[in-house]
Amino acid sequence: MKRALWYLVRAQLGLHVAFAFLDTQPLACVACGFVAHVFYAALLPRFPAYKALSPEFLGAVVLCVASHALWGNHFYNHTYATLEWVGAFFVVVVWPAPFLLFMSYGSIDGLPVGGLTSRAGIDGRERPGSGFLAALGLGERLNIAKRHAAEEQHNGTGGGHVPPYHGHDRAY
Length: 172
Known about the structure:
Blueprint: H1 2-22, H2 27-43, H3 55-78, H4 83-94, H5 96-106, E1 118-120, E2 126-128, H6 132-135, H7 139-155
Antiparallel strand pairs: 1-2
Helix pairs in contact: 1-2, 1-5, 2-3
């Protein structure tokens, strides 16, 4: 997957260079798309273990939104292209790299809640999963809170048993 993303990002960068020199697309859209793809490429060396709060990831998200907004504004206000043509343009030029990067990020360990799960490492100590919450640095904190609540329940110091409510024993 990582190698495919490298080739895709390189091809997209080449496509943006071709737009700059060979096509009449607006330079602001092309430049923003090019810089966005540079940020996508900056995520690849650590793929799939990049941090969601890293400057590369945050820059990629901001530039992805900016690129979409610029291209959308361009096609909405400055061209008479059909919806099919604009959709095909977005599928080929704007969406492939961010879609694969961001979607594969959430599916590394299953669903984005993979940060809630813990797995024992080689040394026997538990470590957080590599999902979205773990990337934010919340996975270990939530695991500690879950272990603490389980210990309180086991020791009888908290989490008392609440009988189920069946609805017929209370008057309103």
